[in-house]
Write a structure and sequence with these properties.
Elements lengths: L1 H13 L6 E7 L3 H11 L4 H9 L6 H18 L7 E10 L3 E6 L5 E6 L2 E9 L2
Antiparallel strand pairs: 1-5, 2-5, 3-4
Helix pairs in contact: 3-4
Amino acid sequence: MAKRLREKAAARKENADKRPHAVAKYIRISPDKVRIVLDIVRGRTYNEAVAILKNTPKAASEPVLKVLESAAANAENNLNMNKSDLYVAECFANAGPILKRIMPKAKGSAGRINKRTSHITVIMDEAK
């Protein structure tokens, strides 16, 4: 039994994605709003993506910039890559848990307010 578990763990480690990445979880912005910003930087070089995010007047650009810089720092420190050679290979925002709130309505009824959260992932890669 233990041998099979070790084999599975070794296979999982061998097939793991070796590209530098960073994840920000439980960001209090709707994933739909974050995806608009991510679509702008997908496929761009690191320097170009940073310049775009610093000049984008969207609320989601700040956390996306933070995750992008974290992924670049991971590439530089852990994998000895150069920041200027990196580009945004993949980026996506998944839905996190929803904070459910109540807004009073007419005649004693209540309306539901969903405060959505996001998990933002940025995967970098070296330009060839």
